Amino acid sequence: MKRVFCLLALAVLLAVSLSGAAAAEDAQDTEQLLQSFELRHGDRSVKKVAVTVDDCYKNRRESISLDVELCLKYGVRMTFFPIVYTGCLEPQYRDIWQSVLDAGCEIGSHSWSHWQLGNRTSAGIIQVLGDWQQAIDETLGYHYETRWLRPPYGSMTDNLKGNDSHTRVTKAIRTYGYEHVALWDVSQTDPDKALKAVKNGSIMLFHATVKDTKCLEKLIPALLEEGYELVTLSELFGFDPPETGGELYVFDREMYKGK
């Protein structure tokens, strides 16, 4: 009986501790949050959320366009994270990506392919990030200063080999020039469940698919009705929109040798 009581007391203490940790995390303002490299949510005291859309495969272009239409219809903004190897970032699709920006949305990097960064060498990580930036510039026809990176699978480790490469991956990403990676705290494609899971400052993960677009068709008006403002990641964290213009970016691996 004494053992059971001790276990119950321990469980209560653990619950209180976790609750306190969660409360402390939620109390962080934007300045405090930006001290971290990995960002899962914004300021919990501000009723803003960021809808993010990953992958954006070439054969899902219609979903991208429908998402943009939702933005225009409801006066909201999203952040899109396309992958290069799917073929969606090519000059022939310039109109699609320009429409994303014209709608006030933002574009972030999801790397060259959907392969965990931890399974690449440091030089390989820098290469795929540079190749992505070169691809977005060629697609748009002008330089687009990308601010956000979302690692494939949201992973900073090498799960195939079973070793934690988090530090090496972080260093390589920082060496290339990204100050933060954008993760998420809500990943739910059922609109009712997503609405229950969302909090102030939430970063919501979706993909350019028919299912996810149908979810957003119901979720966006529901979020607005609840008083949320749907913004880009830069707006969520108080940054100006990414700068544009100037010469097209061309990746030069020699710049990063020895770093």
Written overview of the protein:
By secondary structure, this protein is of the alpha/beta class. It is 42% helix and 10% strand. The strands form two sheets. Strands 2, 3, 4, 6 and 7 form a five-stranded parallel beta sheet that branches. Strands 1-5 form a two-stranded parallel ribbon. Helix 3 links the parallel strand 2 and strand 3. Helix 3 packs parallel to helix 8, helix 5 packs across helix 6 and helix 7 packs across helix 8. It is globular and about 50 Å long. The protein starts with a helix and ends in a 23-residue tail after the last helix. 36% of the residues are buried.
Number of helices: 9
Number of strands: 7
Contiguous low-pLDDT stretches (5 residues minimum) are 1-24
Cα Rg: 20 Å
* Overall SS class: alpha/beta
Helix content: 40-55%
What is the makeup of the main sheet?
Answer: 5 strands, parallel
- Global mean pLDDT: 90
Distance between the termini: 60 Å
Oligomer description: single chain
Based on Cα principal axes, name the global outline: globular
Strand content: 5-15%
Give, in order, the helices and strands. Answer: HHEEHEHEHHEHEHEH
